[in-house]
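#structure-requests
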Amino acid sequence: MIEVPITEKMIKNAKRNANELGKLNNSITSGEGNIAGFIGEIAASQVIGGDICNTYEYDILYFDGYDVISYDVKTKRCTSKPKPHYECSVSNFHNPQKCDKYVFVRVECVKDVYNKVWVLGEYPKEQYFKDAKFLKEGQVDQSNGFVVKADCYNLPISSLKEISYGS
């Protein structure tokens, strides 16, 4: 887990991008998480060392010297530092995205103030759906008591792979 400082420039860019984007179709939070999502993308790109592309299929491209690796960033808002047993989620709606890996991020937001961001780790997309547990909308996640808002696949933070390159 890598903590990335949130700067005023990050917040300004995230707010601008969120306003341009508007509400996404099938957004679980009806667009309320857009600013945090863009902060997550900015932080992840800094850790990975890749370029933000922001397509439906992926958010970041990284060239490792031989191959181009595409990442989709999955961000959740939180009110405290994430713990290893907390879950990372990918909505079943996003399952067909054409990315190589997911990178998971948490953005601390308390009373509409963005304080900290943690880039938690990565996971190969194809392997994620084999290893994660599937939960249906309305089902209670037994690991934390959360009522799932949409069909999704969950994996604990402790299962993520460390990001070992970038800046």
